[in-house]
Specification:
2 copies of one chain form a homodimer. Chain A is α+β, with helices and mostly antiparallel strands and 221 residues long. Chain A is built from 9 helices and 5 strands; from the N terminus they run βαβαββαααααααβ.
């Protein structure tokens, strides 16, 4: 029985989930939800995800939504396989949770504002909102300066191992760097840049990009 | 050795942490950080919390910030004492995490917008931003309609027991209901109202309110 992930491979939150499943070697099937056609706002979708957001997963008779909660669940369920994405002690997990929450509460709203104003609006044929994107970019740079200091102290955000704290940042940051003309935000931040090259060089993340590029829907480790 | 919580009892995020500590019977000392005097933006504070936000905790030589991460840590560390705030199985915890993330990603930004525009600005002698507060109130009501359906199915958000999923909502919602003239948002939502009366009637939450009203700084169960 494979996990069914309802979403679109190019969307940020489904990418967080499928990256986690790949790191943990969990077979899954991606069930395409057409966001352009607003399928995520249809009643049959909202029966499963009442806020009309992707992704949700169906795993036998267990269903779950919210990408970070899904990632935590599989990271915990398969704790003994692959990288220890939640740390090995209560204190290590707490530090993973701290940086997961920094991403959710501080980093993501700002990164999303950049992606929305500088990429999604133009992709929909609307004007790029330059001033809003620039204001968000200044905030993101201030956050990245904190990350630079942290990454000078430890190889990954929550310590010496790759965890969900790092993984959760990848999808939105890739859009910021590659699609919003904002790669300069990382300039002069050597530890941040080394971290970014390291975590996006992982085979697991490259596999996520394969899903985006090929339209593949099935993963079997 | 007691846990030191750096923050202010009237602030939303410290309330989330001290409520959790009280539910779990963990002695703590509240170390006052004067937000009006911007003490949370001073270098010595930002050495501990690099984003300049309250609270952070110091527990012997272990330090942690982000209120939801702190709550998860103590709920997990003292899993066997008091209410099972994270569920009892992996699937129960996953549902708790789902609703924790709904609060963090959907509910909190909207509730905070109401509190900011309808309470904090006037409290600082600035004009209440009526249109912004009203727009956020419409969004919060739509979210509350989803909660009403969920709470018709289970007594608490994540099931039949009080968990962090419920606890995390209380501080900001209290400001919305009591200080922003928005109690009408709950009207006609009988399950939501019963849930709200239930969770704010807990001795643990009443103790939090005592800290706000009396200026007490020490908790010993």
């Amino acid at each position: 029985m494979v996990v069914k992930v309802y979403g679109e491979a190019r969307a940020v939150c489904p990418q967080r989930v499928i990256h986690c499943l790949i790191e943990k070697g969990v077979p899954f099937e991606l069930v395409h939800v057409d966001l352009d056609a607003m399928e995520h706002k249809r009643p049959e979708f909202m029966e499963k995800q009442p806020f009309g957001q992707v992704p949700y997963v169906v795993d036998g008779d267990f269903e779950l939504f919210e990408s970070r909660a899904i990632a935590r669940y599989y990271a915990s369920k398969y704790a003994d396989y692959g990288p220890s994405l939640l740390g090995r002690t209560a204190e290590e997990r707490a530090k993973v949770e701290q940086w997961l929450d920094v991403e959710a509460m501080n980093y993501n709203p700002v990164a999303f504002s950049i992606v929305w104003n500088a990429f999604i609006l133009p992709a929909r044929g609307l004007a790029r909102k330059e001033a809003k994107a620039a204001a968000a970019a200044r905030k993101l740079e201030a956050i990245m300066e904190v990350y630079e200091k942290q990454l000078a102290k430890s190889r990954y955000l929550a310590g010496e191992e790759f965890t969900l704290a790092d993984l959760t940042h990848i999808p939105a940051t890739r859009y910021v760097v590659e699609n919003c003309n904002m790669a300069h935000l990382m300039e002069g931040k050597q530890h941040l840049k080394a971290w970014w090259e390291n975590i996006t060089g992982r085979p697991g993340w490259k596999k996520v990009m394969e899903f985006v590029e090929t339209g593949a829907t099935k993963y079997q480790p």
